[in-house]
Design a protein that fits this description.
1000 residues; alpha/beta; Aminopeptidase; 7-stranded mixed β-sheet; 36% helix; metalloexopeptidase activity; MFS_trans_sf; metal ion binding; vacuole; transmembrane helix
């Protein structure tokens, strides 16, 4: 049966002796009107959700959408540059694929030279010099066993500065490469950069924009083939004048241009001038530590010339990089404007800088730590300063926090560690303060939710790893939803079982401790590895430490623990029932008493103060039960004589003062003295800065690695990074999750379930995010045997070939698939294909010729030989030596057969001499001229066979349909796949050779 009000009073009377009764008549009122800003479920849910949405939405927009340029007429008036004409120029140079080894490359070069001369003539600048480099030949070591011979076809534009400063300060270099790969028109790699350089030349050749420093604009040719164009520039006489550089590159196909890396903090300050800066020094650290294996011309200017500068590049999406979709259709004038604006702003600073900071040997060079804020602000620090900053935070902040703990303990207000106050009054001798109730629950919740997120990420990586290729956004949504659900559930259960007013403070404390550990790792990386990519930990820890301090300051508003009984007995003038409820267990009106309860004998002197709690309130008010040692929790000492139906409701009261002083239902009584609004300040301090900085890095990292699986990279590492950044982004939310209503978590549960099913079952590729496969064709120029090779992800490439390529299933065709020797982690499928027509009018037997001649031997037993290589319709070949422990090549010289060019032997910085030469790569600026290669070698014993090897000549022009097998692959590939080049040449013709000694 239901408990009647009269029996309610009687039941309370069983437990306590009535206190002094007030004779005043209590005014009645309805439920307390709690302020919307109190730490209650609805305001906490709404406010924290709004904060995250207000941060995520602009970060996503900035990440994916480049800024819109001003009207073209406005640009022509303000800076004198026609952006639309620049965009049209991009269309002119991307009509065809134009690798170094193609006829289209020559046409692009001629077009660019004509365009530059038109710009100079338009601006009337007769001090500008255009240099076509057709005389520098360079021979250098690529990898340790590879020699590269390259003949320059660079274009250099020198814009003379005013030079109104004393002494030598060094000139400014701007670089872009105008060659593309053989399978892409090169709109963003590197067409946008090339036309940006043309726009910059237009700007700086205008009389009103004359720079102070001399400026060199380099359009190099041959970047796609081992950075050959930039290496050739190192031997040009003008190179020694340059001390600052800006390299413009493309490693994606659209979006914003990001600051890939910089040599030092001093030169990075120029990028701060940009209106729309974008980038993080974490990307530079990834290059520095070898996590990103591809390179740009940046390493030549930095490593070989000792210059200081910036690497600005497009970087997403990688699925279109080096494919036919790297075209104007997939980029925009907005992307062009972003690269141009950031480049121009940086260069104005460089060109007009009159300091001596960048002269060689100045010594003022410090590693930089930098990042943008919402794509509008830019922060730059020296790594030495961030290290000092880190060490100060690691050492001083904990002492300050411990000092607050000491002050709280001295003032008897350290409720976080308090258990029970003593009493000499009529109340029970021991009551729980339960301040440490919430100590372990944040750690357990973090451990539980993080384990769930990591486990789910590994599940996806095991079942459908390539889904991140096209659905990285779904991965973020899935993992974020799961973390919130699991963390909210674990905290909610803990709060239901043992309500605690200290949950928020302990959560902030744990998060601050985790941030402190991350900051330790950052300090070690800064000191030992000279990388500052974990800079976010500095701001992360600062925010958490400040929030923790604010939480500790809350406790100074609470009465000392020794006075808690005074607080209980004098807080209100309540009726007897209310006084009794301070120590009596609350009773749920919805629970019926059993007959035994009504017929129980009256209490006497032998009756315990505490009854069996089997009939006491349950559910979220279970904290009102007697504790294990027979005392009552202060959390149970609610001044509310009834159990609320809704946790946002308050009991009837006599004044608004009483309303404001109520603690949250089920939590400790002393919590009513805590400030009601400081949680807002804690949320504002704790969430925005860590989320902004960490989420920006997460988006950059996530986009960078999402489509690297097609390159052979392990997907497990990528999924671990997704999980780690998910946790870091959401940790600042945890102190407030136990107050969230159930609505958002329930909604997120369905989101999680749907996205997880999609991620596990969906096909990972689409036309917008196609699987990249790599093509090459080899032809034996002695036997005529040819094979087509297609390389890709092992789980898909064989099926792609078997089901889609007609020549692979033709009668007699044998398909062979095995691990690829060039791209680790990928599989190569080979089959007989269509003979290419790369030398029109000539049979394959006459495509190339090789003549090997033995010259002699010196007194040290070093033999010398000469190989003459001639090939039609190409200007690229490779010479491969079959070297073993018994025979090896010691040195190589390459000569222009016409005798016009002089080869410069360039020594790479840090090059180790004495390594045997296994391959020589040959590049000529002229067609069908060939090379004469003289080399020395040594044999341990006389062999009749002599030195053997083979020549590979390359054909890279896919514009006229001569590579029939490539055209077949492009025609029959499914719409969710796209082809890229595997090697320097699309077609590789092989000719063996033998160098016979005189004895042989």
């Amino acid at each position: 049966m239901r408990l009647r009000p009269s029996s309610l009073k009687t039941s309370f009377a069983r437990y306590v002796t009535p206190g002094p009764r007030s004779t005043a008549t209590m005014p009645t009122c309805g439920p307390c009107k709690v302020s919307f800003l109190h730490f209650r479920p609805l305001p906490v849910t709404i406010f924290t959700a709004i904060i995250y949405l207000a941060l995520f939405i602009p970060l996503l927009i900035i990440h994916y959408v480049p800024p819109t340029p001003p009207p073209n007429t406005s640009l022509k008036e303000s800076i004198g540059v026609d952006l639309e004409d620049t965009w049209h120029t991009l269309a002119a140079i991307t009509k065809k694929y134009h690798p170094y080894n193609s006829r289209a490359n020559d046409r692009v070069r001629t077009f660019l030279v004509d365009k530059i001369n038109q710009i100079i003539e338009k601006n009337g600048n007769n001090k500008t010099q255009v240099v076509e480099d057709t005389y520098v030949n360079v021979l250098y070591t690529g990898r340790s066993t590879v020699k590269i011979y390259f003949e320059s076809l660079n274009v250099i534009v020198k814009v003379q500065g005013s030079g109104d400063f004393e002494g030598e300060v060094g000139d400014v270099l701007v670089n872009a490469h105008y060659d593309s790969v053989s399978t892409a028109p090169g709109a963003t790699d590197d067409g946008v950069a090339v036309v940006t350089v043309l726009g910059l030349i237009d700007y700086f050749t205008q009389p009103q924009n004359t720079p102070r420093r001399d400026m060199y604009f380099l359009l190099n040719n041959g970047e796609e083939d081992y950075l050959n164009g930039a290496m050739a520039f190192t031997e040009h006489p003008l190179a020694k004048n340059c001390r600052i550089f800006l390299n413009l590159e493309g490693a994606g196909a659209g979006g914003r241009a990001t600051l890939f890396r910089s040599t030092d903090a001093e030169v990075t300050k120029f990028f701060k001038r940009a209106k729309y800066p974008f980038g993080s020094s974490l990307s530079g650290d990834a290059f520095k530590r070898g996590f990103i294996r591809s390179q740009t011309d940046y390493i030549i200017f930095d490593g070989e010339l000792g210059m200081r500068g910036l690497d600005l590049a497009f970087w997403q999406p990688r699925a279109r990089y080096h494919t036919q979709w790297d075209s104007m259709a997939f980029t925009s004038i907005n992307s062009l404007w972003h690269m141009f604006e950031t480049s121009l702003s940086s260069l104005i600073g460089m060109a007009h800088d009159g300091s001596y900071t960048f002269i060689q040997g100045s010594g003022r060079k410090h590693t930089g730590v930098w990042f943008d804020m919402f794509g509008r602000g830019f922060a730059i620090f020296q790594i030495a300063d961030t290290f000092i900053w880190s060490m100060c935070l690691l050492t001083i902040t904990p002492f300050f926090i411990f000092g607050l703990f000491y002050l709280l303990a001295s003032s008897d207000k350290l409720y976080l560690l308090a258990s029970s106050p003593k009493s000499n009054g009529p109340l029970p001798p021991k009551l729980e303060l339960a301040g440490c109730k919430g100590f372990w629950r944040p750690f357990v919740a973090i451990l539980f939710s993080t384990s769930a997120v990591v486990g789910t990420a590994l599940l996806i990586a095991n079942v459908n790893p390539m889904i991140m290729y096209s659905s990285q956004e779904a991965i973020w949504v899935c993992l974020i939803s799961l973390w919130i659900i699991t963390s909210w559930f674990s905290l909610k259960v803990a709060n239901w079982w043992r309500p605690s007013a200290t949950s928020r403070t302990w959560s902030i404390g744990w998060i601050s401790f985790i941030a402190w550990l991350l900051l330790v790792l950052n300090a070690v990386a800064e000191d030992r590895l000279d990388v500052g990519g974990m800079y976010f930990t500095i701001f992360y820890y600062m925010a958490t430490a400040i929030a923790l301090v604010l939480s500790l300051l809350d406790l100074f508003f609470v009465p000392p623990t020794s006075h808690i009984y005074d607080s209980i007995t004098h807080v209100d003038q309540l009726e007897d029932d209310d006084h009794r409820s301070l120590i009596a267990p609350s009773v749920d009106h919805t629970n019926a008493l059993s007959p035994d309860d009504e017929e129980a004998e009256p209490p006497n002197e032998h009756t315990s103060l505490l009854r069996d709690s089997s009939n006491l309130g349950r559910g979220r008010h279970i904290g009102r039960r007697p504790n294990s040692h027979g005392s009552l929790s202060i959390g149970a000492a609610s001044s509310i004589p009834t159990i609320e139906n809704n946790e946002d409701d308050e009991a009837p009261c006599s004044s608004s003062v009483q309303c404001a002083s109520r603690q949250y239902p089920g939590e400790q009584y002393w919590a009513r003295h805590l400030p009601r609004y400081t949680w807002l300040l804690q949320a504002i301090v704790l969430i925005p800065v860590p989320v902004i900085i960490t989420a920006q890095i997460a988006l950059i990292v996530g986009t960078s690695i999402a489509q690297t699986g097609a390159d052979g990279n392990s997907p497990v590492t990528a999924y671990i990074l997704y999980a780690a950044f998910t946790v870091l982004i959401l940790l600042p939310l945890q102190p407030f999750l136990h107050r969230w209503t159930r609505h958002i978590p329930i909604f997120l549960f369905f989101i999680f379930a749907g996205t997880l099913l999609y991620l596990l079952l969906a096909f990972p590729f689409s036309w917008n995010n196609p699987l990249k496969v790599y093509f090459a064709q080899t032809v034996d120029l002695k036997t005529g045997e040819n094979k087509v090779h297609l390389v890709g992800v092992s789980s898909h490439i064989k099926k792609v070939v078997e089901e889609n390529i007609p020549s692979a299933w033709a009668p007699g065709a044998s398909l062979e698939c095995d691990d690829d020797p060039l791209r680790v982690g990928l599989q190569r499928c080979s089959w007989p294909g269509k003979i290419p027509n790369v030398v029109p009018g000539h049979d394959w037997k006459k495509w190339a010729s090789v003549n090997a001649t033995y010259i002699g031997e010196n007194a040290d037993g070093i033999k010398t030989a000469k190989i003459e290589v001639r090939a039609k319709n190409t200007r690229a070949c490779r010479l491969n030596f079959d070297t073993t422990k018994d025979k090896w090549v010691t040195s190589v010289d390459v000569f222009d057969p016409t005798g016009k060019g002089k080869t410069v032997k360039h020594k790479i910085q840090g090059e180790v001499t004495g390594n045997p030469v296994k391959q020589v790569r040959l590049w000529s600026r002229e067609w069908e001229r060939g090379w004469d290669v003289v080399f020395s070698y040594k044999l341990r014993e006389i062999e009749t066979e002599g030195l053997v090897g083979f020549v590979e000549c390359l054909w890279s022009d896919a514009n006229d349909g001569g590579v029939k097998a490539l055209e077949e692959v492009k025609s029959y590939l499914p719409q969710w796949a796209v082809v890229s080049k595997l090697e320097d040449g699309l077609v590789i013709g092989e000719i063996p050779f033998v160098v016979q000694t005189l004895e042989g």
